[in-house]
Amino acid sequence: MNEEKMLDGKVVVVTGAGGGIGRDIALMAGAHGAHVVVNDIGASLRGEGQDEGPAASVVQEIEEAGGKAVANTDSVSEPDAAQRIIETAIDTFGRVDCIVNNAGILRDTFFHKMTDEEWDSVLKVHLNGTFNVSRAAAPHFKAQGSGSMVHMTSTSGLIGNLAQGNYSAAKLGITALSKSIALDMQRFGVRSNCIAPFAWSRMISSIKVDTPEQEQRVARLKQMTPAKVAPLAIYLLADACDTSGQIFAVRNNEIFLISQPRPIRSVHNSEGWTPAQIGAQAIPALKASYYPLEVSADVFSWDPV
């Protein structure tokens, strides 16, 4: 295993790679010998507008460092456009080996105030986008008997956050999709994993800061750069990795393996349950194992190291 070139000769597609975490993953993929498709529509944080500049700028950075890359500005939210992203890899470099589903937008608002558009647009980019790009790549991975996918999830979905019902639902949905991909594609030698990144980026910069607790959280996030997330993504893409169906989090210099839902306690009544018996017996027995209504910052409450 060559530590310096873990992706030597691989063709890697990174969506939302015009800045932030995606940019750092694309740059590191190029540094590790990959040919990189830098996908980014160049939109605002809310997904508005389009600009070729961000993707082209990252391509230039990769090429100036001696790597090979090509820009793509198609939207992951539309199946045909996602197909064109993969076709860019095939047409330019002859194959596709890895994808990183990183593209995302935000429409933060409280659930009871959320519009249809705010819900639909976030689901289309995050969850549909992950599906669209993964499905477009799948036939190529199946035919060659290899491939790796890394999808960006979030502790907003895994744990919870205020005013992010659309984003949280999409990000938790991505973890279930990733597990299904890992199961369905295992026999073809294809791996699928998720990363929940802690990093200060354009997307995270939109967090509402209206309490001392939120100010402290933002101060901690500013210490965590997108570059800290890239090494794990590169490893998960590499042939040296045999991991699949897992959820990781990266928080500065810490890497976490995140739990997946499993039964933790049960109650049994051989005669079956009535509603009254559930209230009197079952719920009191189960309540000791309830999860509190926490947000991500409550669980990851210590300073990053």
Question: Number of DSSP strands?
Answer: 8
- Tell me, what's the shape? globular
Secondary-structure element pattern, one letter each: EHEHEHEHEHHEHHEEHH
In the sheet with the most strands, the strands line up as 3-2-1-4-5-6-7-8
Low-confidence stretches: none
CATH topology heading: Rossmann fold
Query: Distance between the terminal alpha carbons, to the nearest Å?
Result: 29 Å
Content of β-strand: 5-15%
Whole-number total of structural domains: 1
What is the overall number of helices?
A: 10
Domain Ketoreductase: 10-203
Protein name: NAD(P)-dependent dehydrogenase, short-chain alcohol dehydrogenase family
Pfam families: adh_short (PF00106)
InterPro entries: KR_dom, NAD(P)-bd_dom_sf, Peroxisomal_Beta-Oxidation, Sc_DH/Rdtase_CS, SDR_fam
Structural description of this entry:
The protein is 42% helix and 14% strand. By secondary structure, the chain is α/β, with parallel strands linked by helices. The protein has one domain: NAD(P)-binding Rossmann-like Domain (Rossmann fold), CATH 3.40.50.720. The chain has an 8-stranded mixed sheet with strand order 3-2-1-4-5-6-7-8, sandwiched between helices. Helix 1 (20-31) links the parallel strand 1 (11-14) and strand 2. The two termini are 29 Å apart. The mean pLDDT is 92.
Features:
Sc_DH/Rdtase_CS; KR_dom; 42% helix; Rossmann fold; 8 strands; 14% strand; alpha/beta; eight-stranded mixed β-sheet; NAD(P)-dependent dehydrogenase, short-chain alcohol dehydrogenase family; globular; 305 residues; single chain
